[in-house]
Amino acid sequence: MDYSSRLKSKMASVDDSDEEQEEEEDMLLACILVSEYLEEKEERTKFYVRERIVWEHHIADLTKEGDEAFQHLYRMNYSAFMKLCSIIQPQVQVNEEMSRRRTGKDPVSVEMMLQCLLHYLAGGSYLDIKISTDISQAA
């Protein structure tokens, strides 16, 4: 084997080892970048879970105030309100399992949804409704 052949052979092996070393360095760099990303990646932001009004307690409180308290607050009697709830229930029902996973609580009831809707349609601000019912803006 002459000198140029040996030189070419050595250069080829150096090139192969350089390529292998480059691949190893690239892999190491990729691992470092992924590691840094995972360390800096923030977890899903925490949210405040409000204590919701228990509808049955709300109705009991209104009943204590007198027969006209519900009528005055919702501009309809209780039986009309419940009939309206039964009409809209199929359209507004939520996935209970997903609600519990997200908040750890039962989903917002149909009655609460209707109460919020009536409050909003009567001119209430969504911020007032959020505070008075203790449910999230998204609900």
What does the model show?
The chain has 139 residues and is mostly helical. It has 2 domains: 1-41; 55-133, no CATH class. Helices cover 71% and strands 0% of the residues. It contains 7 helices and no strands. It has helices at residues 3-40, 55-65, 68-74, 78-92, 96-103, 110-121, 126-133. Helix 4 (78-92) crosses helix 6 (110-121). The mean pLDDT is 78.
Key phrases:
mainly alpha; 139 residues
How would you summarize what this structure contains?
This protein is rod-shaped.
What's the pLDDT, averaged over the residues?
78
C-alpha Rg (nearest Å): 33 Å
Helix and strand pattern: HHHHHHH
Q: Which range does the strand content fall in?
A: under 5%
Count up the domains: 2
Specify the helix fraction band. over 70%
Please report the total strand number as a whole number: 0
Q: What class would the helix/strand composition place it in?
A: mainly alpha
Terminal CA distance: 82 Å
Shape: rod-shaped
Model regions low in confidence, pLDDT < 50 over at least 5 residues: none
The main β sheet shows up as: none
Number of helices: 7
